[in-house]
Design a protein that fits this description.
Helices cover 22% and strands 30% of the residues. With 901 residues, it is α+β, with helices and mostly antiparallel strands. Strands 19, 20, 24, 25, 26, 27, 28, 29, 30 and 31 form a ten-stranded mixed β-sheet that branches. A seven-stranded antiparallel β-sheet has the order 32-37-38-39-45-41-42. Helix 5 packs antiparallel against helix 7, helix 7 packs antiparallel against helix 8 and helix 8 packs antiparallel against helix 9. The longest helix has 22 residues. The two termini are 52 Å apart.
Length: 901
């Protein structure tokens, strides 16, 4: 807190010294490697980004023409203008996204403080931005701490601690730490940080049982890594005796269910760096001198929950001078084989707190607590009382599906006295909108709250229409997506399997990045996919990091090729393609092994032991009726992966490879149409087959026939309802609108009877479900795949892959009879807005183009276009390019525009 106040004071001083009278740009939202103030990065040349805003909303045509980045070794020096690390000076450039650090070599474990100011097209300089900072991590060879564990291996949560003495005044104390599977750090009795369920999941190291699982792989992965975190604990230390304490949970490293597979016993690696005011340093390392003790947590598992006995609490266990009774030596262990890597991805945090909507006593010492929506998280008891020795049991109910999930459904707490309890679980989460609590005499609303816990990916978009159903669909999907984000991966369901399925993640990826601040999230998870790829064959498994319960098929592995491209288009980050291009090509190389004599792809992968493996070869999944042919879906994804490799190669200036992959994609497409099109029935098949074909591009010779068949299949045979599984749903709505069937897409999205999103909501859903029928899980975000239609078609906001990261924005709303559609989103250059309103024959579009971007706007052709009541030729910032195919094309510079048409 003291450190943050110091930074705030620096910001105020910087603002006072700036020449603000002429400023037309404001600089904010400084980021390092897509992160706000990251405590640790280990990239040797981190990339810096910021957002320019116009000083007032009336300004138009604002653009950055130069910047100055300054970096100092302390916040005090930054405030004084002593830029002792790096000063770019005034640098002519319009770039504000991902500027590589170019100063002297950055030192390990050091903090750096930086600011930016920019000049606009009139050479007017902005005020300095607010101060920001980042911390550097450690090189692998700089890790000298040992891995340590408790003597006993089990599902308890041991306490580990180390006392140390400071004889001089400490300038800074920083802890670099990895506790597997999860950890909580304490210094002198205080819990450090607001992170939970950390560190994030990774491919920690070698496992030797993967070839013996139900879904068996050889475990020949490309890379292994362990994520460490950094905490500044200067404020918690005192001169003299201090205590460093860690509680370990089993987490993903030692899971309590076989389909996740164990890496070994929970363990700790911790390295504290003490820097004294006289310039000397000292290290406190995890080693054999640490002590361990049992904790009150008798059972800690991500699947089966937590058991806590308050009678076993160790008083002041992380406070210097506390009792040494019961403390034993730790053991030094080998630990995981993965390379130590800084965790530059968001941690799980408490993101929302809910009060009960009702508490009902349903029996003797039995209560049912209800909340207004289903969340992933836990109950925080804040004032509860019980009797010594009595045990509270909390069973978490997943919507209407009580009993579906036999895992992680229970919490047990044994009271030590009759004092008020302040307790939440430490190393697991639950999924619920109801909780049945037994074993206590009384329960009131003041005794507990529900806390939603998920990877911290803030919502950065707004979607609102005059149709409440569309708004609600978006809301329940957002809730489901957040519930499924833990450990900086996306799971299929947060309650049952909890596994990082790549197919589910691939399907919903674009919807996620159009709703959330997800760049750090996907930067990490796509790296997990690279790590999990087979280094010899190129095979990308169905989950990353791999868990042997992950069933899937071709579309799951295709995530390795598709997601880096979508990331690049959204965030303008070419390094993602540079880092992933080899993996993208390797995945395609693997897919080519399954080409048949007819030139289509039909994967029939067997288990590592040679058995047939249905769960390795899926096509689409969970349609309302029948599945499309597996080989059709496989071939579609081979085409798309080859096409994306061609696009990536062009960006990376690999012309020969780009031509080769484009030729491959064209050949696969030709074979697809030749093999799957039934000329007699004028269709590619049921279950969304025509959607896949239209997405690929149906030959003109019979395109109209396919369009007619598709309309009839949906509107007549399916009576205006969805026909696709979760993979086909990704393309369903946008493909219909792009092919002259916008009315069909709207009709399907607007349905409230089975099968539809609306039907789920009519059944009381507060999250999206696994099946259109309501079978199985009631918390699956995968069908969010189709919601990109809201933002890119209804609102019409699209990134231009030729100028990615929204450097150029394509605005092409497809109109309906909705009175209003509004969508805004934070882009790398600032907030873009598209709002269409129409009422009483009057149509208006409100558009915001951020500084650093330009936009092309397409509106229905008309001769009465005006902005602010003026003809367009008299309006600054708009150029009318002409009319074609019933559309008027406008070029927009930065600014906010209100256009009537």
């Amino acid at each position: 807190m003291k450190r943050m106040k110091k930074i705030v004071n620096i910001v105020l001083l910087a603002c006072l010294s700036a020449t603000m009278t002429q400023a037309q740009l404001k600089v904010r939202d400084l980021r390092v490697e897509h992160n706000l103030n990251p405590s640790v990065v280990d990239v040797t040349t981190p990339r810096l980004s910021w957002i320019n805003e116009a000083a007032n909303e009336k300004l138009r045509g604002q653009r950055q023409t130069a910047y100055q980045i300054v970096v100092a070794s302390s916040c005090e020096k930054l405030a004084k203008g002593e830029y002792d690390v790096w000063d770019t000076g005034k640098t002519c450039s319009e770039e504000s996204n991902l500027i590589a650090y170019g100063g002297p070599e950055l030192q390990s474990a050091k903090d750096y403080y930086w600011q930016v100011r920019t000049w606009n097209q009139d050479d007017k300089v902005s005020a300095w931005s607010p101060a920001s900072h980042w911390g550097m991590g450690l090189k692998n060879e700089e890790w000298t701490a040992q891995w340590i564990s408790a003597q006993k291996d089990g599902f308890e949560a041991p306490l580990l601690r180390k006392g140390f003495t400071t004889h001089k005044k400490v300038q800074q104390a920083k802890v670099f730490i990895c506790g597997l599977g999860f950890f909580e750090l304490y210094v002198n009795g205080s819990r450090i940080g607001e992170d939970y369920l950390v560190p994030n999941l990774s491919n920690y190291g070698k496992r030797y049982d993967l070839d013996k699982q139900a879904i068996a792989l050889d475990g020949n992965f490309r890379d292994y890594r362990v994520l460490y975190m950094a905490y500044d604990v200067t404020a918690q230390l005192k001169q003299g005796e201090n205590m460093l304490g860690v509680m370990l949970g089993n987490g993903w490293y030692h899971p309590d269910q076989a389909n996740a597979s164990t890496y070994g016993q929970s363990c700790l690696r911790c390295q504290m760096m003490l820097t004294y005011t006289d310039g000397t340093t000292e290290m406190v390392l995890s080693d054999g001198s640490w002590k361990e003790h049992t904790s009150p947590i008798l059972y800690s598992g991500i699947y089966r929950g937590e058991q806590y006995d308050a009678n076993l609490e160790v008083k002041d266990w992380a406070v210097p001078g506390s009792s040494e009774e019961g403390w034993n030596n730790v053991k030094v262990v080998e630990g995981p084989s993965g390379q130590m890597t800084a965790m530059t991805s968001p941690a799980d945090k408490i993101t929302e707190t809910l009060r009960p909507t009702s508490i009902q006593k349903t029996g003797d010492k039995t209560f049912e607590v209800t909340f207004d929506k289903e969340i992933s998280g836990w109950i925080h008891f804040t004032g509860l009382k019980g009797h010594k020795g009595e045990t509270l049991c909390a069973d978490f109910i997943h919507g209407t599906q009580e009993g579906l999930n036999p895992y992680a459904s229970s919490l047990r707490y044994t009271f030590k006295d009759e004092e008020k309890v302040d307790y939440r679980p430490s190393f697991t989460w639950f999924v619920f909108d109801k909780v049945r609590i037994t074993g206590i005499d009384n329960l009131t609303e003041q005794d507990l709250v529900a806390e939603a816990v998920n990877t911290d990916v803030p919502v950065t978009a707004e979607f609102v229409t005059s149709n409440p159903l569309f708004n609600r669909i978006n809301e329940i999907w957002q809730r489901s997506q957040l519930d499924n984000m833990h450990g900086c991966v996306a799971s299929d369901c947060p309650h049952r399997e909890r596994l990082p399925y790549t197919g589910d993640g691939e399907a919903a990826c674009e919807t996620v990045i159009l709703n959330f601040d997800a760049a750090p999230f996907y930067q990490k998870w796509i790296r997990d996919m690279r790590d999990s790829q087979n280094r010899d064959t190129g095979y990308e498994p169905n989950g990353a990091p791999w868990a042997p319960g992950c069933g899937g098929g071709v579309a799951w592995g295709a995530a390795m090729t598709l997601m880096p491209w979508w990331f690049y288009v959204q965030y303008g980050d070419q390094r993602m393609l540079e880092d992933s291009y080899l993996n993208m090509k390797e995945q395609v190389r693997y897919m080519l092994n399954w080409i048949t004599l007819d030139g289509i792809m039909f994967q029939k992968k067997r288990n590592y032991n040679g058995d047939e493996a249905y769960w390795l070869n899926l096509g689409d999944w969970c349609p309302p009726n029948g599945l499309p042919r597996d080989e059709l879906v496989h071939t579609f994804y081979l085409w798309q992966c080859a096409d994306f490799c061609a696009r990536a190669a062009r960006v990376l200036q690999q012309k020969e490879e780009a031509d080769s992959y484009q030729a491959m994609a064209d050949k696969v497409a030709a074979n697809f149409h030749r093999y799957f099109y039934n000329a007699e029935e004028k269709t590619y098949g049921k279950g969304g087959c025509n959607i896949y074909a239209l997405r690929m591009g149906v030959p003109e010779a019979y395109r109209q026939e396919v369009l007619k068949t598709t309309r009839h299949e949906i509107m007549e045979e399916a009576k205006g309802h969805i026909t696709t599984g979760f993979l086909g749903t990704k393309y369903f709505f946008e493909t219909l609108s792009e092919n002259g069937m916008h009315d069909v897409a709207y009709t399907v999205m607007n349905k409230k009877d089975f099968p539809s999103y609306g039907w789920w909501i009519e059944q009381g859903a507060t999250t999206t479900w696994e099946e259109w029928s309501g079978a199985n899980s009631h918390n699956h975000p995968m069908f969010g795949s189709g919601l990109t239609w809201f933002y890119r078609t209804l609102a019409g906001v699209n990134a231009d892959e030729a100028q990615p990261g929204y450097r150029h924005i394509i605005l092409r709303p497809q109109l309906t009879d909705l009175e209003q559609v509004r969508y805004s989103q934070r882009t790398p250059y600032g907030r873009v807005l598209s709002q269409i309103t129409q009422k009483d024959g009057r149509r208006e579009m409100l558009v915001t183009v951020p500084v650093g971007s330009t936009a092309t706007l397409y509106l229905p052709a008309t001769d009465v276009l005006k902005e602010g009541g003026k003809p367009l030729e008299k309006v600054q910032g708009i150029t009318q390019k002409g009319q074609e195919k019933g559309e008027t094309e406008l070029e927009l510079q930065q600014g906010t525009y209100r256009i009537t048409f």
